[in-house]
Amino acid sequence: MNTQDYRMSRRVFVGSLAAALAAAWIAPAGLRAADKAALRKTIPGTAETLAVIGLGTSQTFDIGSDKAALSGLTEVLQAFFSNGGELIDSSPMYGTAEMVLGELLNRIVRRDRLFAATKVWTDGRQAGIRQMEDSLQKWSINRFDLMQIHNLRDWQTHLKTLRAWKDDGKIRYIGITTSHGRYHRELEQILRNESLDFVQLSYNIEVRTAEERLLPLAADRGIAVLVNRPFQRGEIFRKVKGKALPDWAAECDCASWGQFFLKFIVSHPEVTCVIPATSKVHHLQDNMAAGFGHMPDTAMRKRMADYFEAL
Ligand SMILES: NC(=O)c1ccc[n+]([C@@H]2O[C@H](COP(=O)([O-])OP(=O)(O)OC[C@H]3O[C@@H](n4cnc5c(N)ncnc54)[C@H](OP(=O)(O)O)[C@@H]3O)[C@@H](O)[C@H]2O)c1
């Protein structure tokens, strides 16, 4: 795509901005004052904490130069930062997503802390370096906080480069990703044998395989965990369509199914951050609210999982 074609016009931007400013977060009703601070988790082996609700960009940010969609995503991004969001996850695999993100990051009003996470997804050392440099340009930032090897692709090659980049201060953390249960055996070997800061995997109330080996292993190895596909790409909402939340969901401040699903994930002790994707500001608000209020304890997590399974 021609970058020139891609620039958002000032008129569109100003319109988006007005809408974005109207999208400030309203605390979920009934929250006690003490619960109004968002939950944060520590990155293992560091003193650094992260807000538990991040943002994914697969498909939702791959919108090319569609002006209406750009305007909508400006609101989404503005609301994300206004609600204390920090970690944004992308990849060169997601079409125009990184370029769109860079465009919008330059235009939003308030950008407190961005924790920038992307991936390398190619074969070969030089191609990997070129791709990561290209991603920096697209995001318009000087440094990624987290660089992940996407779906284990040519991981031995890229790991060497990432280690050198980390030593040089060009990235802060190194990670590796998978999704939907793919490559779990190989991933397990890598987590056991290599030194990594982050692992990204799929985990949600419907597909809980990661609980068996990967999450305990990440804990043993002191590796932070990012969770992708928290809603099974949205499929999970079909199962609860037309069904009311159980009354007891209010005990952990869940006001929607989205919050129920996200709180189930972030209350797992080994999960550091979850990265739901959305193109809609009201879904973004809903998702960010899951970082606030009471979190489910072990007994409540079991109750939630059992309830969902019985639906
Ligand atoms: N191998 C990898 O590295 C890998 C693989 C998969 C994903 N990821 C990362 O993980 C992120 C999340 O996964 P995903 O995008 O596959 O799927 P997801 O986050 O599980 O689901 C996204 C879908 O959920 C809908 N949604 C979001 N919030 C909602 C809410 N509150 N209520 C109702 N619907 C809601 C969105 O639709 P609307 O737009 O209508 O809100 C969207 O269709 C990706 O964007 C990507 O950054 C990485």
What does this structure look like?
With 311 residues, this protein is of the alpha/beta class. It has a single domain (50-310), classed as TIM Barrel. The protein is 40% helix and 14% strand. The protein is built from twelve helices and ten strands. It has helices at 3-6, 10-21, 67-82, 97-105, 125-139, 155-167, 184-193, 214-221, 236-239, 257-266, 281-289, 298-310, and strands spanning 40-42, 49-51, 55-56, 87-89, 115-120, 144-149, 171-177, 198-202, 224-228, 273-274. An eight-stranded parallel β-sheet has the order 3-4-5-6-7-8-9-10. A two-stranded antiparallel sheet has the order 1-2. The chain is globular and about 55 Å long. Residues 1-30 have low confidence and may be disordered. It binds NADP nicotinamide-adenine-dinucleotide phosphate. NADP nicotinamide-adenine-dinucleotide phosphate (NAP) binds next to α11.
**Strand segment count:** 10
Proportion of strand residues: 5-15%
Small molecules held by this entry = NADP nicotinamide-adenine-dinucleotide phosphate
Q: Provide the domain count.
A: 1
Helix proportion of residues, in percent? 25-40%
Structural class: alpha/beta
Shape, principal axes of CA atoms: globular
Which architecture does the CATH hierarchy give at level 2? Alpha-Beta Barrel
Q: Assign the CATH topology.
A: TIM Barrel
Q: Which consecutive residue ranges, at least 5 long each, have pLDDT under 50?
A: 1-30
| CATH-level-4 superfamily name | NADP-dependent oxidoreductase domain
